[in-house]
Amino acid sequence: MNTLKLEIVTPEGLIFSGNVKNVTLPGSEGEFGVYPNHASLVSLLKAGVIDIELEDSKHEIVAINWGHAKVSENSVTVLADGAVAISGGSDSQVAESLAKAKELIKSIGESSIAIATATAKIESMSKSGILKL
Amino acid sequence: MSSLKEIKRKIKSVENTKKTTRAMKLVSTAKLNRAKIAAQQSRVYADKINEVLSEIAFKINQYKVGGIESRFFDEISSPKKVDIIFVTADKGLCGGFNIQTIKAVSNLMQEYKSKKIKVRLRGVGKKGLAYFKFKDIELHSEYVGVSSSPSYEKASEIIKDAIDDFIKGVTDKIILVHNGYLNMISQELKIVDLVPVNPPEYFEEESSKSMMELEPEEDETILESLMKKYFEYNMYYALIDSLAAEHSARMQAMENATNNATERVEMLTLAYNKARQESITTELIEIISGVESMK
Q1: pTM of the prediction?
Q2: Which chain B residues are closer than 8 Å to A3 by Cβ?
Q3: For A4-128, which CATH superfamily applies?
Q4: Is B78 helix (H, G, I), strand (E, B) or coil?
């Protein structure tokens, strides 16, 4: 089965690296999904969440504030200014990283709509239980 | 033969020096740990952004993607004016750290001068600036106080001028020279051509199959913002990396100094003991001969 190699890096270090089924990125012109064999593309990213579908069909979420994405056939590289991975073993840890992610998006003074969509997405995904936690 | 008192004073002085160098070593070790972590963290990002940029450069050169005749990627066969940005420390006492960078910059200047290419220097760090001022070499801009506490804002401020000149066409090339951290005991001199971005000669086939699209596509904002990030981050990384290297160089230099001081104290103590013994012997002989003559 085809997979994409995804890497998310920030000035603080590597946030995510691994093979994924597909990934949804918050492009400045709108959200877009990337599957394997996507055409080469460089895009500006706005504040929002990156939705990653892992090989085992579980999902992982990374919130970013601003960045660039470079897509080629089999790899996606995201260069973000700040990123928070929503993860953790227990509910409280998840809640904590959720709060951090919200703060990150808020911190750049993005419109309240962006914050609302991002947080709504994070919350709905964490409730639906498809997140790999 | 130096007198006892004199030797004793020397020992004391060397011991004081030893205390200083040892303290400096400890301070550098502590600072190095922090600087090292910062450098390692940002290395990932710096590597990635360079990789992305060189891939873009490759594709732009190969496909001449939609009207982006950006100067950033044009390979210039005969540059007329080159900007060299170098990073040295504000402080000395770190072995060959500063000299290494200075030498590299001087060599580059020689090389370009022989090709009749104008060179402009932009310097960061007191030590490097002082050297070129002493040699009466003109410095285009000087930045002091950045190398000891690098920050992203300061880095972007330094590089901004250089980019503006490049975009306006005043300069044709920007080279960044700095010392980088390799490991605890060695540093590595890095000479990076910032622009024009050199595309790698070889690419894995799969990654260069298709043309590259840019989004948003109507203007060049995306490339501009990416380039800006690229410059600023490279500058920032150069500062952090240089700081880590400076501390590791100083740590080593101070360790050597401490060892040398220890050796010197040992030698002096030996000389002191010898001198003491000699004076005792002389005194004894005097006493004995005095007693002998009384008989």
Answers
A1: 0.83
A2: none
A3: F0F1 ATP synthase delta/epsilon subunit, N-terminal (2.60.15.10)
A4: coil
